[in-house]
Amino acid sequence: MTTPSYAVNPEALKTTVAGALGALAQRIDLCLDEVTVTVTSADYLKAAQVLRDAPGCQFEQLIDLCGIDYSDYGNGTWDGARYAVVSHLMSVSLNQRVRLRVFVSDDDLPVVDSVNGLWNSANWFEREAFDLFGIVFEGHADLRRILTDYGFIGHPFRKDFPVSGHVEMRYDAERQRVIYQPVTIEPREIIPRTIREDNYGGIKP
User: Fold this and answer.
1) Gap between the terminal Cα atoms of the chain
2) DSSP per residue, 94-153
3) Structural domains of the chain, ranges and CATH numbers in brackets
4) Which tens digit of pLDDT belongs to each residue from 42-58?
5) pTM for the whole thing?
Protein backbone atom coordinates (compact mmCIF):
# COMPACT_ATOMS: atom_id res chain seq x y z
CA MET A 1 0.00 0.00 0.00
CA THR A 2 1.46 3.35 -1.07
CA THR A 3 1.10 6.28 1.29
CA PRO A 4 -0.62 9.23 -0.45
CA SER A 5 1.74 12.12 -1.12
CA TYR A 6 -0.41 14.55 0.85
CA ALA A 7 -0.31 12.45 4.02
CA VAL A 8 2.36 12.51 6.70
CA ASN A 9 4.76 9.58 6.51
CA PRO A 10 3.64 7.11 9.23
CA GLU A 11 7.21 6.34 10.30
CA ALA A 12 7.94 10.05 10.67
CA LEU A 13 4.74 10.53 12.65
CA LYS A 14 5.65 7.67 14.96
CA THR A 15 9.07 9.25 15.58
CA THR A 16 7.52 12.67 16.22
CA VAL A 17 4.93 11.29 18.65
CA ALA A 18 7.57 9.25 20.47
CA GLY A 19 9.78 12.30 20.86
CA ALA A 20 6.92 14.44 22.17
CA LEU A 21 5.61 11.90 24.67
CA GLY A 22 8.90 10.47 25.89
CA ALA A 23 8.36 8.30 28.98
CA LEU A 24 4.61 9.00 28.92
CA ALA A 25 4.26 6.46 26.10
CA GLN A 26 4.09 2.89 27.33
CA ARG A 27 4.37 1.65 23.75
CA ILE A 28 3.91 3.00 20.22
CA ASP A 29 2.86 0.65 17.42
CA LEU A 30 2.77 1.16 13.68
CA CYS A 31 0.45 -1.19 11.82
CA LEU A 32 -1.21 -0.69 8.43
CA ASP A 33 0.24 2.83 8.32
CA GLU A 34 -1.62 3.73 11.53
CA VAL A 35 0.10 4.88 14.71
CA THR A 36 -1.30 3.63 18.03
CA VAL A 37 -0.02 5.04 21.31
CA THR A 38 -0.65 3.11 24.54
CA VAL A 39 -0.33 4.90 27.88
CA THR A 40 -1.06 4.05 31.50
CA SER A 41 -4.14 5.44 33.22
CA ALA A 42 -1.89 7.58 35.45
CA ASP A 43 -0.35 9.29 32.38
CA TYR A 44 -3.46 9.38 30.19
CA LEU A 45 -4.54 12.97 30.72
CA LYS A 46 -1.03 14.39 30.50
CA ALA A 47 -0.25 12.39 27.37
CA ALA A 48 -3.48 13.55 25.76
CA GLN A 49 -2.56 17.17 26.43
CA VAL A 50 0.89 16.68 24.93
CA LEU A 51 -0.63 15.17 21.79
CA ARG A 52 -2.94 18.16 21.49
CA ASP A 53 -0.36 20.90 22.09
CA ALA A 54 3.13 19.65 21.16
CA PRO A 55 4.71 20.97 17.92
CA GLY A 56 4.56 18.30 15.24
CA CYS A 57 1.56 16.68 16.89
CA GLN A 58 -1.15 19.35 17.20
CA PHE A 59 -4.09 16.96 17.34
CA GLU A 60 -6.75 19.62 17.72
CA GLN A 61 -9.73 17.31 17.26
CA LEU A 62 -10.97 14.20 19.00
CA ILE A 63 -13.10 12.47 16.37
CA ASP A 64 -14.01 9.30 18.27
CA LEU A 65 -13.74 7.69 21.69
CA CYS A 66 -15.00 4.28 22.75
CA GLY A 67 -14.66 1.61 25.41
CA ILE A 68 -13.38 -1.91 24.82
CA ASP A 69 -13.90 -5.08 26.85
CA TYR A 70 -10.93 -7.42 26.32
CA SER A 71 -12.23 -10.21 28.59
CA ASP A 72 -12.86 -12.60 25.68
CA TYR A 73 -10.06 -11.36 23.47
CA GLY A 74 -7.99 -14.10 21.87
CA ASN A 75 -10.59 -16.70 22.82
CA GLY A 76 -9.97 -16.13 26.50
CA THR A 77 -6.16 -16.06 26.35
CA TRP A 78 -5.96 -12.35 27.23
CA ASP A 79 -4.32 -11.80 30.65
CA GLY A 80 -4.12 -8.00 30.73
CA ALA A 81 -6.52 -5.38 32.04
CA ARG A 82 -10.12 -6.02 31.02
CA TYR A 83 -11.17 -2.51 29.96
CA ALA A 84 -9.57 0.06 27.71
CA VAL A 85 -10.54 3.44 26.30
CA VAL A 86 -9.49 4.20 22.74
CA SER A 87 -9.53 7.68 21.20
CA HIS A 88 -8.92 8.73 17.61
CA LEU A 89 -7.27 12.12 17.30
CA MET A 90 -6.88 14.24 14.19
CA SER A 91 -4.67 17.19 13.33
CA VAL A 92 -6.40 19.34 10.75
CA SER A 93 -3.44 21.68 10.46
CA LEU A 94 -0.92 18.88 9.81
CA ASN A 95 -3.24 16.37 8.11
CA GLN A 96 -2.44 13.42 10.39
CA ARG A 97 -4.14 11.04 12.79
CA VAL A 98 -3.18 8.98 15.81
CA ARG A 99 -4.92 6.43 18.00
CA LEU A 100 -4.57 6.79 21.78
CA ARG A 101 -5.29 3.77 23.99
CA VAL A 102 -5.36 3.55 27.77
CA PHE A 103 -5.99 0.40 29.79
CA VAL A 104 -8.00 0.88 32.98
CA SER A 105 -6.24 -0.71 35.93
CA ASP A 106 -9.22 -1.78 38.06
CA ASP A 107 -11.54 -4.34 36.43
CA ASP A 108 -14.12 -4.11 39.21
CA LEU A 109 -14.39 -0.32 39.16
CA PRO A 110 -12.90 0.99 35.90
CA VAL A 111 -12.00 4.67 36.36
CA VAL A 112 -9.99 6.87 34.03
CA ASP A 113 -9.58 10.63 33.63
CA SER A 114 -11.98 12.51 31.38
CA VAL A 115 -10.48 14.32 28.41
CA ASN A 116 -13.57 16.47 27.96
CA GLY A 117 -11.61 19.45 29.27
CA LEU A 118 -9.17 19.04 26.36
CA TRP A 119 -11.67 18.21 23.61
CA ASN A 120 -15.31 19.03 24.28
CA SER A 121 -16.32 16.48 21.63
CA ALA A 122 -15.47 13.80 24.22
CA ASN A 123 -18.60 14.68 26.22
CA TRP A 124 -21.13 12.32 24.63
CA PHE A 125 -18.50 9.74 23.67
CA GLU A 126 -17.49 9.35 27.33
CA ARG A 127 -21.12 9.18 28.40
CA GLU A 128 -21.65 6.40 25.86
CA ALA A 129 -18.63 4.44 27.13
CA PHE A 130 -19.92 4.87 30.68
CA ASP A 131 -23.40 3.72 29.70
CA LEU A 132 -22.36 0.70 27.65
CA PHE A 133 -19.21 -0.45 29.47
CA GLY A 134 -19.49 1.07 32.96
CA ILE A 135 -16.21 2.97 32.59
CA VAL A 136 -16.21 6.01 34.90
CA PHE A 137 -14.58 9.18 33.54
CA GLU A 138 -13.31 11.14 36.48
CA GLY A 139 -13.76 14.88 36.07
CA HIS A 140 -16.64 14.63 33.60
CA ALA A 141 -19.20 17.27 34.59
CA ASP A 142 -22.32 15.38 33.49
CA LEU A 143 -21.57 11.65 33.45
CA ARG A 144 -24.91 9.87 33.06
CA ARG A 145 -26.43 7.31 30.76
CA ILE A 146 -27.10 8.43 27.21
CA LEU A 147 -28.49 5.45 25.25
CA THR A 148 -30.18 3.05 27.67
CA ASP A 149 -33.51 3.63 29.38
CA TYR A 150 -34.07 5.27 32.77
CA GLY A 151 -33.42 2.78 35.55
CA PHE A 152 -31.50 0.42 33.26
CA ILE A 153 -29.36 -2.03 35.24
CA GLY A 154 -26.00 -3.17 33.91
CA HIS A 155 -23.85 -2.25 30.93
CA PRO A 156 -24.92 -3.97 27.71
CA PHE A 157 -21.60 -3.94 25.83
CA ARG A 158 -19.78 -5.91 28.49
CA LYS A 159 -18.98 -9.41 27.30
CA ASP A 160 -20.76 -11.01 30.26
CA PHE A 161 -24.03 -9.12 29.70
CA PRO A 162 -26.71 -11.54 28.42
CA VAL A 163 -27.87 -10.99 24.84
CA SER A 164 -31.50 -11.11 25.98
CA GLY A 165 -30.89 -8.62 28.79
CA HIS A 166 -32.38 -8.91 32.29
CA VAL A 167 -35.77 -7.25 31.85
CA GLU A 168 -38.28 -6.64 29.10
CA MET A 169 -41.05 -4.10 28.76
CA ARG A 170 -44.54 -4.46 27.37
CA TYR A 171 -47.82 -2.62 27.35
CA ASP A 172 -50.23 -3.81 30.04
CA ALA A 173 -53.83 -3.31 28.87
CA GLU A 174 -55.25 -3.58 32.38
CA ARG A 175 -52.91 -0.97 33.85
CA GLN A 176 -52.94 0.99 30.59
CA ARG A 177 -49.24 1.67 30.75
CA VAL A 178 -45.87 0.20 29.87
CA ILE A 179 -44.48 -2.14 32.54
CA TYR A 180 -41.16 -3.85 33.12
CA GLN A 181 -40.88 -7.54 33.94
CA PRO A 182 -38.15 -10.19 34.11
CA VAL A 183 -37.14 -11.34 30.65
CA THR A 184 -39.16 -14.34 29.43
CA ILE A 185 -36.96 -15.29 26.48
CA GLU A 186 -35.48 -18.74 27.02
CA PRO A 187 -31.80 -18.87 26.08
CA ARG A 188 -31.11 -21.35 23.30
CA GLU A 189 -28.45 -22.05 20.76
CA ILE A 190 -29.53 -22.49 17.18
CA ILE A 191 -27.18 -24.40 14.90
CA PRO A 192 -27.99 -23.92 11.22
CA ARG A 193 -28.59 -27.08 9.30
CA THR A 194 -27.10 -27.25 5.83
CA ILE A 195 -28.56 -29.60 3.23
CA ARG A 196 -26.89 -29.86 -0.16
CA GLU A 197 -28.07 -31.84 -3.13
CA ASP A 198 -25.73 -34.12 -4.98
CA ASN A 199 -23.60 -32.16 -7.43
CA TYR A 200 -24.84 -28.89 -5.92
CA GLY A 201 -23.29 -26.05 -7.90
CA GLY A 202 -21.56 -28.56 -10.16
CA ILE A 203 -19.30 -29.75 -7.32
CA LYS A 204 -19.03 -33.49 -6.89
CA PRO A 205 -18.56 -34.96 -3.39
Assistant:
1) 40
2) TTEEEEEEEE-S-SSS-EEE--TTT-TTHHHHHHHHHHHH--EEET-TT---SSSPTT--
3) 10-152 (3.30.460.80)
4) 999 999 999 999 999 99
5) 0.80
